[in-house]
Input
Amino acid sequence: MSRARHVGLPRWLFGPALLAGAFVVLPVASMTTRIALGDFWSLVTSRAARSALVLSLETSSASTALCLLLGVPLATVLARGEGRWLGPLRSLVLLPLVLPPVVGGIALLSTFGRQGLLGGELEALGIRIAFTSVAVVLAQTFVSLPFLVISLEGALRTAGERYDVVAASLGARPTTVLRRVTLPLVLPGLASGAVLAFARSLGEFGATITFAGSLEGTTRTLPLLIYNLRVTDADAAVAMSLVLVAVAVLVIGLVRPRGAL
Output
């Protein structure tokens, strides 16, 4: 068999492509020129920095787990379900992708705040959510859930239902098919979605500061700390920003080999 010929690219594409790459890379790289390498370690290991980093990792892990708990069933229903209602449901699920995060924070506050739709009943039960670490997790989940749903739904549609049908014809129950056939087939897509959801949670700012506030040790995550430091200590803000950049690069490295990006 003869090899398929490789179709070359128009030369004019390379100019805009390089410009686009420079537009993304140059601002990030320029941050490394703002601080001395010898000062970096002391800036990122201060008490406030360590507290924000630990809180960010804890809440992002919790929100990712919540995204998996809610997003796997949701993505499966969207990919394999039938009905006209799936279109509107998909649009609502993807809404956080286009909403300003601060609007998401206001929506959560309107639901779980003291004067919110459910806040009064929860307060009566002794459950307070707004301006707590739980609020941080909910805000992160609200903005990152669509990333997992999109990734998993796409993987499910690509995998198709052929093996599911075969398993069902052999007498496997729907739950068994889902657990033993469907999910193992789309495991790379699920892993990629989870990593993307974690990364989005780690970088969440607008919904968090609106719904959870910025209380050190309780709700002040890394993005909120950077926002505060930009006025009081610009070098520390740059150093913490570079920490988030490093995490983002690591996340991309974890996702890219699986073909999710």
The radius of gyration is 22 Å.
